[in-house]
Design goal:
322 residues; alpha+beta; Phosphorylase Kinase, domain 1; Transferase(Phosphotransferase), domain 1; six-stranded mixed β-sheet; 16% strand; kinase; Mitogen-activated protein kinase 7; transferase; ATP binding; Kinase-like_dom_sf
């Protein structure tokens, strides 16, 4: 049932089935859906998302645990098809130590390494030392610098999309929401409305419907991830759009007047203007155990104005990482 396709869709299954290995060193090579079903035994569902289901499985030939991801309705929903195709096109050209590897085989399947993700590490009982946090952040920024050098915005950075192996090596995954900055101006509306990823890591310019979206979107997400590693909990776990904005304002304070004036949506602008003025909360109050340099870098990432937000290159040169 998990891998059932109509006869007309069998030739299209290379866009519907993604096979991932929980061991970074393992590359499962399947030549057909029959091979996949024969070589693996499904165990249980381990994760679900807006675009698919991930199930744990075990290889019949050597007993190795793997995960199999099925992208739901890849050809019945245009948005899903575009997301899947976009991810394949982007990852086909990316080759970097801190970016997930994809192998497209015989136009039948694609396989990629899939160890544990950072979300599982952060929210476990496992010790997360300052050295771990620094190393994970460094690798994330290193991979993101490569992505940004190609003029690509990831747009969906969050701990569950950052894959980590037993050697603490981190890789950025899930490029289904990625987009190049070379998009035509008329595409800016779809850029915004298509952004349906977890709101907890979403930059203020997306929440406030500002006119321009830049690489700085990703740096905000990195800041949220960094804060989550420092505090072992999400910084802005908004329950809905308004709550998300309220949580951000409670930490960053009232946005600058110039930024409020740039909000395109009248209702959003009026709502922000109606709120009482708030002062920024010192990050040291939220993370008293964090190093001063860590807090300085975090503050540079979590800036309301994207023009004032630190770039990935500047972040890598920050004293906290040097």
């Amino acid at each position: 049932m998990y891998f059932t396709f109509s006869h007309q869709k069998v030739l299209q299954c290379f866009l519907s089935t993604v096979t991932l290995s929980l061991c970074a060193a393992t590359k499962l090579l399947f030549s057909s859906l029959i091979d996949l079903l024969l070589l693996s035994c499904l165990l249980q569902t381990i994760g679900t998302g807006a675009y698919g289901v991930v199930s744990s499985a075990r290889r019949r030939d050597n007993g190795q645990q793997v995960a199999i991801k099925k992208i739901s309705n890849a050809f019945e929903v245009v948005t899903n098809a575009k997301r899947t195709l976009r991810e394949l096109k982007i990852l086909k050209h990316f080759k970097h130590d801190n970016i997930i590897i994809v192998h497209l085989l015989n136009e039948a399947h694609l396989t990629l390494t899939f160890p544990i993700d950072l979300h599982q590490i952060i929210h476990s009982a496992q010790t997360l030392t300052p050295e771990h946090t620094r190393y994970f952040l460094y690798q994330l920024l290193r991979g993101l610098k490569y992505v940004h050098s190609a003029n690509v915005i990831h747009r969906d950075l969050k701990p569950s999309n950052l894959l980590v192996n037993e050697n603490c090596e981190l890789k950025i995954g899930d490029f289904g929401m990625a987009r190049g900055l070379s998009s035509h101006p008329e595409e800016s509306h779809s850029f915004m409305t298509e952004y349906v990823a977890t709101r907890w890591y979403r930059a203020p310019e997306l929440l406030l419907s500002l006119n321009h979206y830049t690489l700085a979107i990703d740096l905000w997400s990195v800041g949220c991830i960094f804060a989550e590693m420092l505090g072992r909990k999400q910084l802005f776990p908004g329950k809905h759009y308004v709550h998300q904005l309220q949580l951000i304002l409670a930490v960053l304070g009232t946005p600058p007047e110039g930024l409020i004036g740039a909000i395109r949506a009248d209702r959003v602008r009026s709502y922000v203007q109606s709120l009482p003025s708030q002062l920024a909360m010192p990050l040291a109050k939220l993370y008293p155990q964090a190093e001063p340099q860590a807090l300085d870098l975090l503050g540079a990432m979590l800036r309301f104005d994207p023009r004032e937000r630190i770039s990935v290159t500047q972040a890598l040169e920050h004293p906290y990482l040097s």
